[in-house]
Amino acid sequence: ETAFGLRTYFLTASGDDGGISGTLPIVEQSSLVFGRFHSSLPFVTYGGALSDNEYVTRELAARAGELARSRDARHVELRHKKATTGLSLPERNDKVSMVLRLPGDEDALAKSLGSKLRSQIRRAEREDPEVIWGREELIGDFYSVFAPSMHGLGTPVYPRSFFEVVLTAMGDRASIIVVRVKGKPEGAALTVRHGAEIEVPWAAASLWGKRNAINMRMYWEMLRSATIAGAGAFDFGRSTVDSGTYRFKKQWGAEPVDLHWCYWLPDGGSIPKLNHSNPKYQLAIRAWQRMPLWCANLIGPRISRNLP
């Protein structure tokens, strides 16, 4: 609501004692190509229902379907991390999270990576990189790397205000890392801690940074920091199985964890493909990549608000 102006709903279930036993956030989006649709939650890997038991989860999902029908939405996407027994909704099975279980100390982490990977990390030392951790004061640096990276992928970028809202909402659980070379940001990422796990939902490096292993140094620093902080696992974020990003994360020792993205469909139709694999996107992606960066940064935030 704050960053994108999207309509949101919060479905809740109450127990006999009046206390909340479950909740399901729903965000409404729409586009000329795909019409109106609901999701929980867009822009991130994990969403779906939070509840005391699976019965409540099923009831919340059913109510989400009723809401979607009343709003004439074409589907509801529930981004669950775990399978829910008896939900009886079709699922996507092409997406996974890549998760690395962390050892107890930095030395054990370095040894687990192997000599080839450690050599790639050391390659960045030739450029004398400066690694900085912070929060709001680094959003400008982060965005200066993230926006061109999204443009190169043919993806409309989120507004800078979205990341400002994320940091405000998450408090001390969220941090930004920036790697500068000669004062210029060449790699940047935003990490979020939840319990014993640290996730990196958004990360990017410049083309120069990738060629000179700045991205490798950045990921090492994130893993090292997570280990020192006592985290039990590092979540590299979601990937399509066997994609380039999947293989990049796999080389760090991360293992795939199946995601359970479930769909309510009003008339039993097929699961929508609101991603780069959809042919409807391909022409738009190529056109977006050819657009001047300044123009893409101006228009992108208006379009990304309706991309899940």
**Low-pLDDT windows of residues:** none
> Structural class, from secondary structure content?
alpha+beta
| Helix and strand pattern | EEEEHEEEHHEHHEEEHHEHEEHH
Chain-averaged pLDDT: 91
Oligomer: single chain
Q: Assign an overall shape.
A: globular
Helix content: 25-40%
Tally of separate helices:
10
List keywords for this structure.
globular; 30% strand; 308 residues; alpha+beta
Ordered list of secondary-structure elements with their pairings:
Layout: E1 7-14, E2 20-31, E3 35-40, E4 50-51, H1 54-70, E5 76-80, E6 91-92, E7 95-101, H2 106-113, H3 115-123, E8 130-134, H4 139-153, H5 160-170, E9 174-181, E10 184-194, E11 197-205, H6 207-211, H7 214-228, E12 233-240, H8 244-250, E13 255-258, E14 260-264, H9 279-290, H10 293-304
Parallel strand pairs: 3-5, 11-12
Antiparallel strand pairs: 1-2, 2-3, 2-4, 5-14, 6-14, 7-12, 7-13, 8-9, 9-10, 10-11
Helix pairs in contact: 3-7
Describe the structure.
With 308 residues, the chain is an alpha+beta fold. The protein is 36% helix and 30% strand. It is built from 10 helices and 14 strands. Strands 1, 2, 3, 4, 5, 6 and 14 form a 7-stranded mixed beta sheet that branches. Strands 8-9-10-11-12-7-13 form a 7-stranded mixed beta sheet, with helices on both faces. Helix 3 packs across helix 7. The protein is globular. The two termini are 14 Å apart. The model has no long low-confidence stretch (mean pLDDT 91).
